[in-house]
Design a protein that fits this description.
The complex is a heterodimer of chains A (287) and B (239). Chain A is mainly beta and 287 residues long. In chain A, 9% of the residues lie in helices and 31% in strands. In chain A, strands 12-19-16-17-14-13-20 form a 7-stranded mixed barrel. Chain A has a 6-stranded antiparallel β-sheet with strand order 7-6-9-4-1-11, with no helix packed on it. In chain A, strands 2-3-10-5-8 form a 5-stranded antiparallel β-sheet.
Chain lengths: 287, 239
């Protein structure tokens, strides 16, 4: 069990997402940066879909009430275990009473904390991912208790987690967002297509787990479509000319032209961007 | 019909872009066929109006493989899906002014009596063209054009769960407390979406619903019965 002494800015439990209920309007949810979350689980020999804690901008203060192993991946947030600095991408054993804190954010904005066997938040509709309206809470709050599978630490056995991964240059240290053509890309003239691809976009302060809105007005238009399915990573072009890039908690359907679709890696890169950072779209060919 | 790649592991199938029951029915039959195959390669299905999205396992399949499998499945007349009946659900709605806070405004703007608005709203079998916006939010087709009314200029920050509302040429039910820009004309005591149930939303795209006006007293009774789990939504199976 781990107890939340302070929740941080926006911390939640996420696995790889909720599948099988999309036709009932249930968002996918899951880790925004699934690559970093995946690293965290891999480093602890966890299952790929085990639930991790997604930590945004300002980290929580947590006290462990049982022994386990932990690892932090993704954004660098100057984590400390009992006031001793610890490294990202390196597993550490923890025991009852150990306190994990976070400090200054150095790069990225989302960190992933994994424990051996994963966090055991309630499974609702096949997933442990928090989502307001589906799970009983959307965010971690003070005094929450989250259980995990108790694990005896044995420094000498060969069950020890794998070593660190060389992550001097994180994969998200790029401004290039790879995109495929979206279903409505062809609705726009070749000049409009060029324009929307050439703009350097700035992440606006309207960015969260549902979507990232960009500042720039690329191509104004009056096109609309009959409401149709959308996905995490779908890029909608609003009539105002602004882009909205849908993220993991996005709704399942939409009525704006879908001009591009991000791949999973690009969603992960974007998930590490904050207000004011710029991105450039790069069209790649599907299949 | 067109089959388009939608990112690295999804396929979007589009019918002619018009809102029609015929197209919806065609999609439903196709979906029932796909589901009856129980393929491990199909991870998720989502359809609304005239589009069907399929998320597939891109580790084992490429777009063209899935596309060709789907095309032959669509064309296969031998597979007759078992689950193709249509269900008409009766949704109880209390149009009392306690809930229908925009009814009198709508009445004066549309120059229709409140009773007329209610009877028009209850006189249609609405088609569920899809679910989206929120878990359990039904996109309904069939609103009488006499009731069309533009949505509010500024959305309300909190529309209560169960609110029945009109926005533009659509009507709908808010499945949970949420912001919303439609005009509220009533409230249903039933939960459209319950995560505790194995089938969290019994109504599915392709079904039909009819609103049935109830009194405040009936509203309370149904609310309690629903809480105790003893209320069953009335449904009529046809077709």
């Amino acid at each position: 069990m781990v107890k939340v002494l302070h929740p941080g800015f926006y911390s939640s439990i996420q696995d790889m997402g909720r599948f099988g209920y999309r036709n009932l309007g249930v968002p996918m949810s899951g880790a925004m940066d699934s690559i970093s979350a995946g690293f965290a689980n891999a480093l602890l020999n966890n299952h790929k879909n085990d639930a991790v804690m997604e930590i945004t901008m300002i980290g929580p203060k947590l006290i462990f009430m049982a022994s386990t192993n932990l690892v932090i991946t993704g954004a660098e947030m100057s984590a400390e275990l009992n006031n001793n600095p610890i490294l990202n991408y390196k597993p550490y054993p923890v025991k009852n009473g150990d306190i994990l804190t976070f400090g200054k954010l150095k790069n990225g904005i989302r960190s992933y904390l994994a424990v051996s066997g994963g966090f055991q938040s309630e499974i609702i509709l096949n997933s442990r991912s928090f989502y307001t309206g589906i799970t009983s809470q959307g965010l971690l709050k003070k005094n929450d208790l989250i259980s995990f599978k108790h694990q005896e630490i044995n420094q000498t056995n060969n069950q020890q987690p794998k070593g660190t991964i060389n992550t001097k240059i994180p994969f998200y240290d790029t401004n290039i967002i790879e995109v495929f053509n979206g279903p409505e890309f062809e609705l726009f003239s070749s000049e409009e297509q060029k324009k929307v691809l050439s703009v350097i976009y700035t992440v606006s302060n309207d960015n969260n787990r549902m979507g990232y809105r960009m500042e720039e007005e690329a191509v104004k238009h009056t096109k609309s479509i009959i409401t149709s399915p959308v996905l995490p990573g779908t890029v909608q072009l609003l009539p105002s000319g602004k882009l909205v890039i849908l993220m993991k908690d996005a709704q399942t359907t939409g009525g704006y032209p879908r001009v591009f679709q991000l791949n999973e890696k690009s969603i992960a890169i974007l998930a590490q961007k904050r207000v004011g950072e710029v991105i450039k779209l790069k069209l790649i060919t599907a299949i | 019909m067109t089959y388009k790649p939608f990112g690295e592991s999804a396929i979007l199938i589009e019918w002619p872009q018009i809102i029609s029951k015929k197209i919806l029915n065609d999609i439903r039959i196709f979906v029932a066929k796909i589901e009856s195959e129980n393929s491990e390669n199909i991870l998720e299905l989502n359809f609304i109006y005239c589009s069907l999205l399929i998320i597939y396992n891109s580790k084992n399949n490429c777009f063209n493989e899935i596309k060709n499998t789907l095309i032959s499945l669509y064309d296969n007349k031998l597979i007759v899906p078992a689950k193709s009946e249509k269900i008409l659900w009766h949704i109880p709605v209390c149009y009392d002014e306690k809930f229908g806070i925009d009814l009198s405004y709508l009445s004066s703007e549309k120059k229709l009596s409140v009773e007329k608005i209610i009877s028009l709203h209850c006189s249609v079998d609405y088609t569920v063209y899809g679910i989206g916006f929120l878990p359990g939010f039904l996109y309904l087709g069939g609103l009488s054009d006499k009731l069309y009314f533009p949505r509010r200029n500024s959305p309300r920050l909190n529309v209560p769960k169960g609110a029945v509302a009109i926005g533009g040429n659509q009507t709908g039910i808010y499945p949970q407390n949420s912001p919303g820009g439609w005009h509220i004309i009533g409230n249903t005591p039933i939960s459209l979406f319950d995560v505790k149930k194995e089938t969290p939303c019994v109504i599915t795209p392709g079904d039909e619903i009819r609103f049935k006006a109830i009194t405040k007293e009936e509203y309370e009774v149904i609310k309690i019965a629903q809480k105790q789990g003893s209320y069953e939504l009335k449904r009529v199976i046809h077709g």
